[in-house]
Amino acid sequence: MRAVKFEDVGQLSVGDYPDPVIQDPGDAIIRVTTAPICGSDLHLLHGRIPGMRPGSVVGHEFVGIVESVGPDVKKFKVGDRVVGSFLIVCGTCWFCQRGSFGNCEQLWVLGYGMFTGDLDGAQAEKVRVPVADWNLHAVDPSLTDEQAVFAGDILTTAAYICARSNISEGDTVAITGAGPVGLLTLMIAKTYNPAQILVVDQAPDRLALAESLGGVPVDMSKVNPVVEIQRATQDRGADIVIECVGATPAFTTALNAVRAGGTVGVIGVYSELEYDFPIGEIWRRGITIVMGGTAHVQAHWSRALELVEQGIVDPTVIITHTLPLEEALKGYEMFESREAMKVILKP
Predict the structure, then answer these.
(1) Terminal CA-to-CA distance of the chain, rounded, Å?
(2) Which distant-in-sequence residues (6+ apart) come within 8 Å of 50 by Cβ?
(3) SS3 of 76, please?
(4) Is the separation of the CB atoms in 208 and 215 below 8 Å?
(5) Coil, strand, or helix at residue 222?
(6) Which of 229, 230, 154, 148 minimizes the C-alpha distance to 188?
(7) Scanning 25, 203, 267, 309, which has the fewest C-beta atoms within 10 Å of its C-beta?
(8) Superfamily designation of domain 156-291
(9) By the 8 A CB rule, do 250 and 269 touch?
(10) Is the domain covering 2-153+295-346 a CATH 3.40.50.410 domain?
(11) What are phi and psi of 83, to 5 degrees?
């Protein structure tokens, strides 16, 4: 089969790779029909995620058709159309049994290296999915691949962090970052009926898209975002700030923009080991900080797909480019340069 492969830090290739086979009774082999490039894939490319095996397949978002299943797979059969979770859970540990899937004692991730299961990824013609009954979700025939594919990662991540942040009707919500996760978080946050949602970024096209989706754009290249959020809330600050960037300056902005007694939900991916945390000020203001960590995909993807099926959320608006798998390197270049919002690969 053809696949996108990690060669070294800063280097990917598209080439031949052995077809996956059933290795365990709970496995399923999926013929991939759609596979996006995710921001987390850039972490691999930049060397922020250690343990990638040279020549291994990358990618963790996909929709496809079940091609074969192991004898222990009960929920799916050959020919079923499915979306896969980036997070491969065991389904049986203490955490999984309590719905805390992101804390699974196994915690494997497709295409993310030896420290997360050393599983081949999904930017390929086929992918093996372990424990398929827990890590695949059926796709309603009414949905296109593009509508369903983000339920395995960023759409459900948005649903997860909104739920964890405890948004209430009438709240003022601020979101740092108008990238794919930030925009999907905006869409999900709207379902809670907040009074307003302010979206902080500095890219005009992304801010324009946020505004078209019902957000209030805050251009941090022109104004101080904390001051703007204060102005929009009678100098209190936002009730909820959701940090979707994964950079310490964005986290600092979130801490400064939230009101006393408010909540900062963090879903941006951090690799920094240290941060100069203003613990006294956070204590004084009584701020709740919710670190999202790895999203509990299996606990939220049914709800995320329902919102898409009902027409309440349209994740396809973040897709800017669709390319054949063979042009994946071009897709990565566009994605990294921010020429593209979201790139879809078609094997």
Answers:
(1) 10
(2) 113, 115
(3) coil
(4) no
(5) coil
(6) 154
(7) 25
(8) NAD(P)-binding Rossmann-like Domain (3.40.50.720)
(9) no
(10) no
(11) -110, 145
